[in-house]
């Protein structure tokens, strides 16, 4: 089992910071950072959270740091349906509804879909019902031949975008379930990877092109997260909002 100092050092290496960089950001001495990392100084709860904040460590992993140091966890984790998260859930619902007629959905850290707006329904109409049994995974659904893949014109590009995003997640935090998803759906190979990589290098934003009702719709997405969550669930949810990338695509949604 790792000590809190070893865990902080690992996070610092992941963020590619020196002890001096972290010390300046956290307003402590580099010597103190060194003492904490080597176990010669036992950090307080406040010190752990200060360093974790500067290292942008997810709340789930901050709890692990506190436990390793002998302290109680600071952050709770409740289902999004919990009464305690009613205000946050309503805020998310408002964002989803306000985005209509364009599609938007909410995913957790493993890309499981938690909520959608009504504009998403039309895209799920021809999906195999088995893929819509909870938990519905956006990556698997989007790339599966019985899911949304038949609608996606530039499937190699979309796969490359998902691959890059999941790789970044795994580079920050090892997650066995997310690793299995990557190996199942996103493992690179052949022309698919090459074509997607070329497109990613050539453009600033890679649109997703869908063929729907005999028309091609070009969409790009943005991600919204909670700014200062105190609950692990809220820390890990993201709202994926899709926008038309051209006038013809915008006109399609305006007519819905």
TrEMBL record:
Gene Ontology molecular function: any one: DNA binding
Superkingdom to which the source organism belongs: Bacteria
Domain HTH cro/C1-type residue range list: 8-62
Pfam families per record: HTH_31, MLTR_LBD
PANTHER family to which the protein is assigned, alphabetical: BLL4672 PROTEIN-RELATED, BLL5781 PROTEIN
Protein name: Transcriptional regulator with XRE-family HTH domain
Species whose genome carries this gene: Nocardioides panzhihuensis
